[in-house]
Amino acid sequence: MKNLAKIISLMAAVTLMAITKANAQVNVSVGIEAGIAPPVLPVYAQPACPVDGYIWQPGYWAWDPDEGDYYWVPGVWVAPPSFGVYWTPSYWGFDGGVYVFHAGYWGPEVGFYGGINYGYGYYGRGFCGGGWSGNHFRYNTAVWHVNRTVIHNTYIDRTVVRRNTIVNNHVAYNGGHGGVMARPTPAQRIAMNQRHIPATSAQRDHQLAAVKDRSQFAKVNHGRPGLTSMRRVDPQQFRQRANTAANRTSTSSHAGRMQSNVRQQSRTVHNNAARQIEARHSQQQYQAQHNQQRVQQQHYQAQRYQQRAQQQRYQAQRYQQPRMQQRPQQQRDLRVQRMETPQRMQQPRMQPQRMQPQHMQPQRAPQPQRERHR
Question: Would you kindly state where each structural domain of the chain is located, as residue ranges?
Answer without folding.
Answer: 21-233, 235-312
